[in-house]
Write a structure and sequence with these properties.
The complex is a heterodimer of chains A (about 525) and B (about 90). With about 525 residues, chain A is mostly helical. Chain A has a domain of about 290 residues. Chain A has 17 helices and ten strands. In chain A, about 45% of the residues are buried. Chain B is mostly helical. Chain B is elongated. Chain B is built from five helices and no strands. Classes of the chains: A mainly alpha (about 525), B mainly alpha (about 90). Chains A and B meet through α2, α3, α4, α12 and α17 of A and α1, α2, α4 and α5 of B.
């Protein structure tokens, strides 16, 4: 095998493995972030009222938090292993950028989480109620700060700002830490991801409470938990929708092809409708060059223009405009993909000369002037830069559809728990339980949109997957894929069994204790 | 050692905490097994660092340069999709 030939099988298995491990990791993280809010609120209620009920409630949700936390431990580290083995070129290119955020995540956030989670679990009788409450909130804060730095790294993949390519080291080097850490894309992604995780915590709480009500058990715990979780869920759902709206603006600016594929927008223009639904074949890339628009499209007039540009008549490029070039609102011309391919080839050719020793100023200038389209130099056919539209289109609709349903669900739940005897409405408890897997589906769909929409790029416009991937035999990647599949299925089964056992057991009831109430 | 000093109380926090664990013991067993599988088996046998294994020390950028600058598009992706002839009257 020629060392420098990569088969599509190697690329596809590497992508599939990363997708599997990332999807699995994302089963645990949002519940950690979401339950952190729930248990923090419960313990705050205990601190303020000193009622044993709230202490028992807080300890119950903390126990479930702990189970999920333990199961999630080290699921993320596997992704870093894959960087070094399956995606070594990508890993080298981004090492200087990713190193700092991941180091900060490990040293600062992880140690903060690890320290305070121990106080949270072990310190009920050892530390003051105030310090214990602070530890509970700081555990959640540690997990949230951990998420910030990972999302900074992912945001940079979508919008690689704050960095300069160094042809001597073949790496992107950080030119501005602040630009990377506080990029608008990173900030938006952080809030959207974290607040949507609070929804998962809320739905989990409501689902478990719903199960108790169906079993006529722990009624007080269930009702009080639903009251808190439904408020958290409603506020989080509304905020997630609003921030998601801002995300679309971000994507329209830096990843217009992602937006076009999310909307199956083959031909763009002004006054673009927002697609509610269309008959996009889920299994086949549509013929976007020959077909005017997706069949049976139902849209909100001018909705996409408003969403993407904040103007009702705003211009939104479709896939064909992005392939063939178009005029931007400011009058400048966005090059066609073929023009970008030519610039990319210039960058590669100049970099080849530079690396062979021709390190003069002219060669370096040619590299740096065209580096913005470096990745396009590896594109042979413009169609390669169009992501697989069906996945983006349907994943986006699943996420948004369930997201709006959740707003309605929490409104109904809040009304029922405050105005009615919610325990009498068994259908609502069943719906609550059904919403748990649906909410996870929405959350994972969001990541599908984010990551599939960026294809074929590992770094937007800079490094396509077939250049980023290591020169490995596809068989070895396939083998580790199936090892992970078996391992993760086993671990997930173990977690679900432990969780079910603890939910069935219910909360531990503290014996009445004399507590001092602060004056 | 005075029993109310910070270090002793911190020690007792962890010692008593671990000793009194119930479901925590199961979780720790799962964590340790998982960490062993991930670090001692998967990392060692299935996830070596590709560049360290193939590049000479200090020559990593040269190795990546060769990998990246000589990489071509996989042949399956280069083949354009065949265009099916349209039948009269079809959409």
């Amino acid at each position: 095998m020629n060392l420098l030939d990569i088969t599509t099988a190697t690329i596809d298995w590497s992508r599939a493995q990363f997708a599997l491990t990332a999807i699995y990791h994302w089963l645990f993280v949002p519940l950690t972030l979401g339950l952190a809010i729930i248990m923090g609120i419960m313990e705050t209620c205990y601190y303020r009222t000193r009622k044993i009920f709230w202490k028992d409630a807080a300890r119950f949700w903390q126990r479930l938090f702990g189970i999920n936390f333990a199961m999630g431990v080290a699921t993320g580290i596997i992704l870093e292993f894959e960087f070094g083995t399956n995606w070594s070129n990508y890993s080298w290119f981004v090492g200087d950028i990713f190193g700092t955020p991941l180091a900060i995540e490990g040293i600062f956030a992880f140690f903060m989480e690890a320290t305070f989670v121990a106080v949270m679990f072990f310190g009920w009788k050892k530390v003051s109620p105030g310090f214990h409450l602070a530890s509970t909130w700081l555990t959640g804060l540690g997990a949230t700060l951990s998420a910030w730095w990972i999302l900074v790294a992912n945001a940079w993949m979508q919008d690689p700002i704050g960095s300069v390519f160094n042809p001597d080291t073949m790496r992107f080097e950080m030119s501005s830490f602040a630009k990377i850490a506080l990029s608008p894309f990173a900030v938006d992604k952080f809030f959207h991801t974290v607040i949507s995780s609070w929804i998962i915590g809320a739905v989990f709480c409501v689902a478990v409470s719903g199960w108790y009500l169906l079993k006529h058990r722990e009624e007080k715990l269930a009702k009080e938990s639903i009251k808190i979780a439904a408020i958290v869920g409603l506020v989080s759902s509304v905020l997630t929708v609003l921030i998601g709206d801002n995300s679309a603006v971000m994507v329209s600016k830096v990843q217009p092809m992602k937006l076009a594929s999310m909307e199956a927008l083959y031909h763009g223009g002004n006054d673009q409708a927002l697609t509610v639904v269309a008959a996009v074949n889920p299994f086949k890339q549509p013929d976007y060059e020959k077909v005017r628009e997706a069949p049976m499209k139902v849209g909100v007039p001018d909705g996409l223009s408003l969403l993407a540009t904040r103007k009702i008549h705003g211009y939104v490029p479709g896939i064909n405009e992005l392939l063939n070039g178009y005029t931007l609102p400011d009058g400048t011309r966005e090059p066609s993909v073929e023009q970008k391919m030519a610039m990319g080839k210039k960058a590669i050719a100049a970099l080849v000369q530079y690396r062979k020793g021709k390190k003069d100023a002219v060669t370096k200038k040619t590299v740096m002037d065209n580096i913005k389209y470096f990745g396009y130099g590896y594109v042979k056919n413009p169609r390669q830069v169009v992501p697989f539209i069906p996945v983006n289109f349907w994943a986006f609709r699943v996420m948004v559809g369930i997201g709006f349903l959740l707003v309605l669900f929490f409104i109904v739940d809040l009304f029922m728990v405050y105005k009615k005897d919610i325990s009498r409405y068994r259908w609502l408890q069943v719906v609550s339980i059904i919403f748990l897997p649906l909410t996870y589906l929405a959350s994972e769909s969001g990541w599908l949109v984010a990551e599939f929409g960026r294809q074929p790029w590992t770094i937007q416009d800079m490094l396509p997957t077939w250049v980023a991937v290591s020169d490995l035999h596809s068989g070895s990647v396939a083998l580790t894929f199936f090892i992970f599949l078996a391992l993760f299925t086993t671990m997930l089964t173990v977690e679900i069994c432990i969780l079910f056992k603890q939910i069935k057991k219910g909360p531990e009831h503290t014996e009445k204790e004399i507590v001092k109430v602060d004056a | 050692m005075k029993r109310n000093n910070f270090l002793y109380r911190t020690f007792r926090l962890y010692y008593d905490g671990f000793r009194d664990m119930t479901v925590g013991k199961t979780l720790w067993a799962v964590i340790l097994i998982k960490l062993f599988i991930i670090f001692a088996i998967l990392k060692v046998f299935f996830f070596p660092d590709f560049i360290s294994h193939h590049a000479r020390k200090g020559q990593e950028s040269q190795f990546v340069s060769e990998q990246v600058l000589n990489r071509t598009t996989p042949s399956a992706q280069m083949t354009p999709r065949p265009v099916k002839p349209r039948l009269p009257g079809s959409r």
